[in-house]
Amino acid sequence: MPPPLPFPGCLDWAGQQVAHPNWRTTHSLLFLAQLAFSGMHVMSNPALHYLPPLVFAAIRLSLALPFLFLTSKQEGEVTMGWRDNAQLLVLGITGVAIPQSIIFVANELGGAGLVGILTPLSTVFTAALAGLLGLERIGLLKMAGVGMAAVGAALVAVADGGNVSGRSPWAAIAMIANTFSYALYTNLMYLFLIRKPHPFTAYFKAVTFGLLCILPAAVAQARFRPVDWRLVPYWVWYVEIYVGVVVTSGAHAMIAWVVQHVAPVLPGVYGALTPALTVGMAALFLGERFQLGDIGCVALILTGMLLVLLARFRDSKANVASQLPEKAEAKHVDGDEAMETLLGVWKGVVAGEKSEFQLLRDLENLDGGTLTVNSFRIERDLVF
User: Fold this and answer.
1) 199-224 and 53-72 helices cross at what angle (nearest 10)?
2) What are phi and psi of 139, to 5 degrees?
3) Which residues contact 157 (CB under 8 A, 6 or more apart)?
4) For residues 94 and 181, is the Cβ–Cβ distance under 8 A?
5) From which residue to which does any coiled coil extend (predicted)?
6) What whole-number distance in Å separates Cα of residue 167 and Cα of residue 151?
7) What tens digit of pLDDT does each residue of 301-344 get?
8) What are the tens digits of pLDDT across the range 197-231?
9) What's the DSSP call for residue 75?
10) If we measure between CA atoms, which residue out of 139, 124, 136, 111 comes closest to residue 180?
């Protein structure tokens, strides 16, 4: 007979949280994810003195790939045709090859703090592109948010170009390209997942294609900037493991899991912590110094991002409220119980307490015969 587990109650609690997490668990995980992202920017900066950016990115993705493969297997066997793989190649270029390599170029040129300052542009660009693609409504509040963030980013680039900040202007340009490319990837992945709802498999294949695109560039960069592997300190490899396994595999998977249990706008709100955490850690551990103008630019970008998130949250609530009565039908088997259950689940989404994913799962988990939902689909919010 095997010995009893030391903390059986803890394991039971963890199992319950995986299935039905409470608000403390979801908020704690979102904070830890943002802390992991900020730590990646800060820890990568000194490591880039020993490994060129593209080489660093290639090693990071190579370490993450086995873990992403194991995660994708949780979805079972997924068949992808040649058209699917062609689209995943585009996703690998826009969401992996370009942003995962350029972000380290920007970090080397401008420092970890600059990366943290401009990272929220991804949310703003995502909303702007979604509006242009007809995936989201473009309103005055959202336009004001996009405009404020764009002004903040432009001021950062102008300050760097005028040597006011002491940073290379190419760092800001690289980060703007990074966030725009990732925003394009976010919208394209959303469209892909509507047709192929297997996010972990899609992400694994996109990373695979992205790595295949990065490898030739990394080899070429290693020829122009030769690496003496014998002089690379051991702690650099710990940083690679951290950014490859903890961040690329763990933090992204964590956010993907949390989004299934909370309103999708919530991870975007937590993204506002990245600039403060990154700038604080960069000043504390790397000795980076920031100008008063940097604080003003951060304020503009974050205000613009929060306005965009507010507009998207309002649109999401209105979208759910308009679609559900038209696309769901309740068949009364036990009196009014079915309709009461449906309305209760619906109110949870409209109030922002549950995500659309949770709504669909709750509807599927109702007792058989109690409720039938025909032609039912709610547009998912684009904030991942």
Assistant:
1) 160
2) -115, 175
3) 169, 172, 173, 176
4) yes
5) none
6) 19
7) 778 878 877 777 777 666 655 555 444 444 333 444 444 555 55
8) 888 888 899 999 999 999 999 999 999 999 889 89
9) G
10) 124
- CA–CA gap between residue 365 and residue 139 (Å, rounded): 36
Domain map of the chain by residue range? 21-319
If you ran DSSP here, which 8-state letter would residue 163 be given? Answer: T
Q: What is the DSSP string of 226-278?
A: ---GGGS-HHHHHHHHIIIIIIIIIIHHHHHHHHTTS-THHHHHHTTHHHHHH
Residue of 194 and 105 predicted with greater confidence: 105
pLDDT of residue 335: 40
- Burial string for 158-195 (b: 16+ CB within 10 Å, else e) reads ebbeeeebebbbebbbbbbbbbbbbbbbbbbbbebeee
| Residue 372, beta-bridge partner list | 329
Confidence of residue 359 (pLDDT cuts 50, 70, 90): low
Query: Nearest Cα to 65, choosing from 201, 185, 200, 208?
Result: 208
As a 3-state breakdown, the chain gives helix, strand, coil percent values, each rounded to 5, of 75, 0, 25
Q: What is the dihedral of CA 119, 356, 248, 20, to 10 degrees?
A: 120
Contact predicate 148/296, CB 8 Å: no
Half-sphere exposure of 263 (CA within 13 A, CB side): 22
Using the Cα atoms of residue 274, residue 277, residue 282 and residue 283 in order, give the sign of their dihedral.
positive
Distance of alpha carbon 194 from its chain centroid, rounded? 18
Query: Does 50 score more than 50 pLDDT?
Result: yes
Which residues lie across from 347 on neighbouring strands? none
Per the CB < 8 A criterion, the answer to whether 91 and 185 are in contact is yes
Minimal CA–CA distance to 349: which of 266, 245, 244, 274? 266
Which pair of tokens denotes residue 34?
């943002």
CB atoms closer than 10 angstroms to residue 210: 27
Strand partners, 329: 372
> Residue 195 is encoded by which pair of tokens?
């047709």
